[in-house]
Write a structure and sequence with these properties.
2 domains, binds zinc ion, alpha+beta, about 20% strand, nine-stranded mixed sheet, 12 helices, five-stranded antiparallel sheet, Aminopeptidase, Alpha-Beta Plaits
C-alpha cells in the first residue's frame, strides 16, 4: 500500500500535468497577468483551499495560501516559487516549487502534525520576465525593493503597461510599494529544478543551494584597422577579430580557473564582415557569474587585465563597458544546514551547489533568510518541453521539505520548553 508521501507525490505529479494545461497558446506558455496566469491561479487556489489554506492575492498578483500556526502572532515561514513560464516551456520550472510546497503541507496534515508557526505558500507571477522588460515583480514587491513607477510603466510587446495589465487582473499597481511584508517573515524556502546537469552527474536527487550567483555583463569593442585580405602582409595587421579571438580564449581560461565561476561570450560581430577584408572592428559580450561578489570582482579584474594585454600585443584599441551588475545572494547558513539534516533524516544524500540562474529567492534574500533545494531534472534541460523530473525524485523532495518543517517546529517547541 502506498504511504502518505507516495500518495502526496502521485497527486503532485498529476497536478503538475493539469497545471501545464493553463497556457496562452500551443505548448506551455504562461505569461504574467495573462488569461493562462488567471487560469493557473484559479486551479492552484482550489487545491490550496482543499488543503485548508486561506487564499488571497496581493497587489502584484502573487497567489498566497496561508496556513495558521498553533502559536498565533509568530512570523510565518514562506514556501514557494513562481507560476509563470517562458515561451514553449516545461511544466516543472516554477510550478514544482509551488505544488511540492503544497504536497509537503498536505503530508504533514495527513500525519496529524500541527506546526507552531504559520506557513504562507507563495505562487509568484513574474519570475521569467518574458512579457514585460522587468522581472521578479512579485518577489521584489513582497521584499519592498520595487521601484513602483518604473515597474508600472513597463510595456509589453502590444504596448500594454504592466500597471494597466495589473489593474485589469485585479492587482493594485499603486499598492506595489505597500505589498512589502512586515514584520519580516521567518524565512523563505524555494524548491526548484536544478536547470543544470550537476545533480544528474553526481547521481543525486537533491542539492542544497549555497548561493545564487551574482552576474556581470559587459560589451567589449575591439578596434583595429580594416584592410585588403590579400595585400596587407600578416606582420603589419591590426586584426580586430583575431585579437577578440585571443581575448575569448583568455576569458574561458580565467573563468574556468576559479571554482563555481562561469564566464561566457555569447555574442560576437565583426565589421565590415566580408570574406576578403581584415576585420576593423569586433564587438562581443561577456556574461560572468560567481557565488560571491568578491570572487566575481577578482575574476573580472583578471579578465580586464588579460584583455588589455591582448589589445597591446595586437596594437588594437579596447573599450569595455559594464552593462549589468547583480549582486550574489547567499543562502542562509542555518537553513542550509537544516535542509541537509532533514535530507539526511530522510536518507537522501545531497551536495551543495551554487545556482547559476536567477530565482525569486534572490529577491527574497533582502527580506528574510532564504534557502533553496534543487531537484535533479533530466539531462539538465529546462525552459523546454523536454524538461522532466522523475516522480521518485519529487517524492524525496516532498519528504525533505516536510521533514524540514517538522524539525523547525520541533526546535520551536524545544525553545518554548526551555523558556
Ligand atoms: Zn524558475
Amino acid at each position: 500500500m502506498a504511504d502518505a508521501a507516495e500518495r502526496a507525490t502521485t497527486r503532485l505529479m498529476a497536478r503538475l500535468d493539469s497545471l501545464a494545461g493553463c497556457t496562452d497558446g500551443p505548448g506551455l506558455t504562461r505569461l504574467y497577468l495573462s488569461p493562462a496566469h488567471a487560469a493557473a491561479i484559479r486551479l492552484v487556489s482550489g487545491w490550496m483551499r482543499d488543503a485548508g489554506l486561506a487564499v488571497r492575492q496581493d497587489a502584484a498578483a502573487t497567489l498566497i495560501g496561508e496556513q495558521a500556526g498553533a502559536h498565533p502572532g509568530t512570523p510565518p515561514l514562506l514556501v514557494g516559487s513562481h507560476l509563470d513560464t517562458v515561451r514553449d516551456a516545461g511544466r516543472y520550472d516554477g510550478a514544482f516549487g509551488v505544488l511540492a510546497g503544497l504536497a509537503a503541507l498536505e503530508l504533514l496534515r495527513d500525519e496529524g502534525a500541527r506546526l507552531p508557526f504559520a506557513v504562507s505558500l507563495l505562487g509568484f507571477g513574474d519570475e521569467e520576465g518574458v512579457r514585460f522588460p522587468v522581472t521578479l515583480t512579485g518577489s521584489r514587491a513582497l521584499a519592498g525593493t520595487l521601484d513602483g513607477a518604473r515597474q508600472r510603466a513597463a510595456l509589453d510587446a502590444d504596448g500594454v503597461s504592466l500597471g494597466d495589465a495589473l489593474a485589469a487582473f485585479g492587482g493594485d499597481s499603486d499598492g506595489l510599494k505597500a505589498a512589502a511584508m512586515a514584520p519580516p517573515p521567518r524565512g523563505f524556502i524555494e524548491l526548484h529544478i536544478e536547470q543544470g546537469p550537476v545533480l544528474q552527474s553526481a547521481g543525486l536527487a537533491l542539492g542544497v543551494v549555497s548561493a545564487i550567483n551574482g552576474a556581470t555583463r559587459a560589451r567589449i569593442t575591439v578596434t583595429g584597422g580594416a584592410g585588403h585580405a590579400g595585400t596587407v602582409p600578416m606582420a603589419g595587421r591590426r586584426d580586430a577579430l583575431a585579437a577578440a579571438a585571443e581575448m575569448i580564449v583568455a576569458i574561458r581560461r580565467l573563468g574556468g580557473a576559479a571554482p563555481d565561476v562561469t564566464a561566457t561570450v555569447g555574442q560576437i560581430a565583426a565589421e565590415p564582415g566580408a570574406v576578403n577584408v581584415i576585420p576593423g572592428r569586433a564587438v562581443f559580450t561577456l556574461d560572468l557569474r560567481a557565488p560571491s561578489d568578491p570572487v566575481r570582482e577578482a575574476v573580472w579584474r583578471r579578465i580586464r587585465a588579460a584583455l588589455a594585454d591582448v589589445a597591446g600585443a595586437h596594437r588594437v584599441q579596447l573599450e569595455v563597458v559594464r552593462t549589468h551588475d547583480a549582486a550574489a545572494a547567499a543562502c542562509d547558513p542555518a537553513l542550509q544546514a537544516a535542509l541537509e539534516r532533514a535530507a539526511a533524516a530522510v536518507g537522501a544524500p545531497t551536495l551543495r551547489l551554487p545556482s547559476g540562474a536567477g530565482h525569486d529567492a534572490m529577491a527574497m534574500a533582502t527580506l528574510c533568510p532564504m534557502a533553496m533545494l534543487f531537484v535533479r531534472c533530466r539531462d539538465g534541460i529546462s525552459h523546454h518541453p523536454a524538461e522532466h523530473v522523475e516522480a521518485a525524485d519529487a517524492e524525496v523532495a516532498v519528504r525533505v521539505l516536510a521533514a524540514l518543517l517538522r524539525d523547525l517546529g520541533a526546535a520551536d517547541r524545544g525553545t518554548d520548553d526551555d523558556a
